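Could you help me review a protein record that somebody else here produced? This is what I was given.
***
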Amino acid sequence: MANKDPIRIGVLFSETGATSTIGRSQMQGTLLAIDEINQAGGVEGREIVPVRYDAQSSPAVYAAYAERLLLQDKVNVIFGCYMSSSRKAVLPIVEKSNKLLFYPTLYEGFEFSNNIIYTGAAPNQNSVQLAEFMTANFGSSVYLIGSNYIYPYESNRIMSDLVLQRPNSRKVGERYFNLDATEKDYRLIMTDIRDKRPDFIFSTVVGDSTASLYRAYAESGLDPKTMPIASLTTSEAEISQMGFDVALGHFTAAPYFQSINSTANKRCLEWLGERFGSSCVPNMCWEAAYFQVHIYANAYRHAEDDEISRIMPHILGSEFEAPQGRIRVDPTNHHTSLYPRIGVANSKGQFTIVREATRPVQPDPYMVTHSLGDWTTTLSTLEL
């Protein structure tokens, strides 16, 4: 008789704490995919059941719950983590247990693990395109602002290297702030930014303090038409916190925006609304959290198991029609082929897409080689 027992998976995101806005959206993307799979008959008739914990935006809590999921709850696969510090905390645990982590977040690259599938953007899928767009349209001097942990430091290093390749380029400032930084903290550097007059500001601020940064910018009287904030981490979710008028005119690079005009995206957003109403704000991390569950389920159907040695051959090289387009897990580096896009925040709290790749860009997490050849202008008159 065929096994009809439920398939238990770990779901580990931050539903509270400084990064809970994105964490909740990642959790909701995961649960939406689970619901879709179960409503369609499950995996060969087996229901997927999430074993879910709130990591509270703390790397130490992430580590503790990862151990609990693998050792006590006996799951083989965890879907989770947002900040790189949380991934770094979980990484040795999944490697020691030889289990699998699906990680749905853009990150700084320069990492490989046999026990991780990376479904967020690597630097050659967002940083390269953002640097090229901003320097071509605004200029080659940049002021770097980030949160005080590993991802912003490494991402700012990469952005600096990319910008400084341009003629007459300058890095005029670089500052880091705690995750709980307030508008008052950010106001202190707006005078410095005004005095140094960069062509654009590059933000790797994450979590709730993102809204504080943008509000401090707006209050300072700086103009996004001449000196915008460009970011890899400011999504529709953060815009919903800061206010549409505050975000207006600033740029983000990401593989996914809500405004993508595709059948898969429209269908997914409709299902999301039916499942969660307005409580979820879809964003790049939500989308990766969503499609990676489908990648797993499709691989399980072939492997009939999620023990890592049996399921991994069916994950690597697999494809899925995600809301952003047809993605593929690269079998050589465990990262995902994605569609880089540049969006500018508009008056509706969404992003107007001003540039996008015509086909997926292969992941190059170690920046060994990267090309802008897949990058084509689709720029039209902006309606901000």
Summary: Residues 7-121+260-337 form a domain with the Rossmann fold fold (CATH 3.40.50.2300).
